[in-house]
Amino acid sequence: MGRATLTRRFTRFAAIDWSGQAVARPKGLAVAEVGDGGPALVEREGGWSRDAVLGWLVELAGARADMLIGLDLSPALPFLDRDSYFPGWDGSPGDARSLWAMVDRMSADDPYLAASSVVADEEVSRHFRRQRACGDRFGSGRGRLRVCEERQLLAGLSPTSCFNLVGAAQVGKSSLTGMRVLHRLAGRIAVWPFDPVPATGPVIVELYTTIAARAAGVRKGLSKLRDPLSLDAALAVLGSAAHVPIARYDDHATDALLSAAWLRTVAGDAALWAPAGLTAEVARTEGWTFGVR
Q1: Parent domain of 163
Q2: What are the tens digits of pLDDT across the range 12-69?
């Protein structure tokens, strides 16, 4: 599957630092864009909401924007390790798109495109580690990982299971809320590798912002940049011009700015679109983190 995917040239690049926080305007949401110059934040009065990001993506789809968009979330749960997202449950979806539909359906009454109802479900909750409650099917250690996350471990990275909802490094809440957005895009934007890369129009890929930080020379343990000089130094390593100055330098804004520039740098690397472990089954059920070989 992966090796049949062809690359194409993009003229614009964007990175979205995501958040699973169940509020109207999560502090963790940040959007950055870059073309020929330095990266800049895409501002939204009052701050971004998940609904607003969805609307922005729909607008890009309607305009057939020539943009590669990185989303900092996991678009699916582990499947291949147990041949199921939720082993032992008859209602477990059979592929990623069915999973997105299930998450959106179960969370229909949750405001702000949150996904609290999913992990509150009696059967589904058995697979998640939650605050003061660990499901009996969560497993041990760091929890279940996708194939691409196992590859991240081999590369010296430290992925967190999507079934973990506890701690600063948890990615489960972001992933579940992101699945609601992917479902509601309803095929308007190709999502790699679930979809082939189209000849025109925007394309979404999964981001792991630490990969961008490492490529920019930010050493392990210091992957977060919180001042303009450090950010511009990292951008220079990627061959990027300095960023457009911003009012506040927090992890979310700098992650988005650096990741957008990194996407521009690596988008033409054919090997990243065809990693060895990306089989048709992986592409159908788990997806892949862009940049993981």
Answers
A1: 1-293
A2: 999 999 999 989 999 999 999 999 999 999 999 999 999 999 999 999 999 999 999 9
